[in-house]
Amino acid sequence: xxxxxxxxxxxxxxxxxxxxxxxxxxxxxxxxxxxxxxxxxxxxxxxxxxxxxxxxxxxxxxxxxxxxxxxxxxxxxxxxxxxxxxxxxxxxxxxxxxxxxxxxxxxxxxxxxxxxxxxxxxxxxxxxxxxxxxxxxxxxxxxxxxxxxxxxxxxxxxxxxxxxxxxxxxxxxxxxxxxxxxxxxxx
Length: 187
Description:
The structure is a single chain. The chain folds into two domains: about 1-130, Rossmann fold, CATH 3.40.50.620; about 140-185, no CATH class. The strands form two sheets. The chain has a five-stranded parallel beta sheet with strand order 3-2-1-4-5, sandwiched between helices. Helices cover about 30% and strands about 20% of the residues. The protein has five helices and eight strands; from the N terminus they run βαβαβαβαββαββ. By secondary structure, it is an alpha/beta fold. It is globular and about 45 Å long. α3 crosses α4. β4 (about 90-95), α4 and β5 form a beta-alpha-beta unit.
């Protein structure tokens, strides 16, 4: 289920909060990690550094014996990430909830939110953390939250979440609404 994982990064430390989790997917599930950087017009002055960072991430995984690649394109991040994911037959997009645009209390980052609404494949969002945050991500899946929408008792994403939880030894939870307590589903 997790054969090809697209990992969008924007060159910021906040967006790279996903890296320890992508690393664990490669280790525990054998996923190919396809790193992508999308350069907008405003980022052109930093293009060289951005391009090097995306390539460096894939090279690091390859040197560790894992399957990884890097792609760097120009355009609108949401459109390009979704287009690239479809072109390579991605089975998952794994990304940080925030990137270089920073944090807005109680919201996802703009790119993450738009991909969540438009992606035709599953999306794994990990909390974006400020680099100075005392609790930086460990990369170990401990808890997986699967939000539920509607009244379907068995969501389409359930097999995906079960497999990830089993392979990473994580507990997973389903939540119908942020206003209701989280209900734990056993494996």
